[in-house]
Specification:
268 residues; alpha+beta; five-stranded antiparallel beta sheet; 6 helices
């Protein structure tokens, strides 16, 4: 009986230890995220907005262009809706994406899909040229060089006069075209405040990590499984405690029986 009880205790302790070690890291993580969520209002987690591209992509948001073209001291970008922004402020509309931008002596030029937008230095719309009004189809680049505005269409270089809107073939060879750059933090902040860049609150991310929803259905099932293992730990822990208590009780009873037997012999 004694060896059988000892075997039960040893067997349950072994599995209790194994399961405990396997869920330890997850339980610590769930405890930390739970504490953070409990103090979310005080910490202002709901007000901390995350705009990381990979995070937005993970949540299924359409990634917004966080880059633009620097034209002189100004920045032109297209967040992806319909509006062109200059230094963080909307100035005109055109179909995304923004393919290129340039600055002449008199104007700012923004090239969108099948549309070229001419702006003043103050961001006022001067003119729009699209494929219906003479812009060659599949125009992909624009550059101001040697006091002349050049565009590229079907690998052909053309010159464009912003004043007369005349387009002529050109024999010039342009090896490099302007490339987009990362927007300055000041402009990014203005775009965030105008809700042009989607974001997810830190509270939402922590809540989804805590519940497992961050990893989809598999993550939820995993957290559920961890919950079942925690219940198993509680049951095995209680059972081992019961067996050890029973063992101590049996030991006490045996010791008492010995003592009573010894007293009975002494009284004879």
């Amino acid at each position: 009986m004694k060896s059988k009880l000892k075997h039960k205790i040893s067997y349950n302790l072994r599995w209790h230890r194994r399961v405990g070690l396997s869920v330890m890291v997850v339980l610590i993580f769930l405890s930390i995220t739970g504490i953070l969520l409990n103090h979310s209002p005080a910490a202002g987690l709901s007000k901390r907005i995350l705009n990381s591209e990979w995070l937005l992509s993970w949540y299924g948001f359409e990634t917004v262009a966080l880059s633009g073209f620097k034209v002189g001291k100004q920045w032109i970008n297209h967040p992806g809706d319909r509006e062109i922004y200059m230094d963080g402020q909307p100035v005109a509309t055109c179909a995304p994406p923004l393919l290129n931008a340039a600055r002449t002596d008199s104007f700012l030029i923004a090239l969108c899909k099948d549309e070229l937008v001419i702006l003043s230095f103050n961001g006022e719309l001067v003119e729009k040229i699209n494929t219906l009004s003479g812009l060659p189809e599949h125009t992909t680049n624009v550059k101001y060089l040697n006091n002349t505005l050049f565009i590229q269409s079907h690998n052909k270089i053309l010159s464009l006069d912003p004043d007369t809107l005349k387009i002529k073939p050109s024999q010039i060879t342009i090896k490099s075209w302007p490339l987009p750059s990362s927007l300055p933090s000041t402009i990014l902040e203005e775009l965030k405040q105008s809700s042009q860049i989607p974001g997810i609150s830190l509270e939402t991310v922590i809540l989804d990590l805590h519940s497992g929803r961050f990893f989809g259905d598999a993550g939820v099932l995993f957290v559920d499984f961890m919950g079942l293992l925690t219940v198993f730990l509680a049951m095995t822990g209680t059972y081992v405690w019961f067996l050890k208590r029973r063992k101590k009780h049996m030991k006490r009873q045996k010791k008492l029986a010995k003592h009573l037997k010894k007293e009975a012999k002494a009284s004879q």
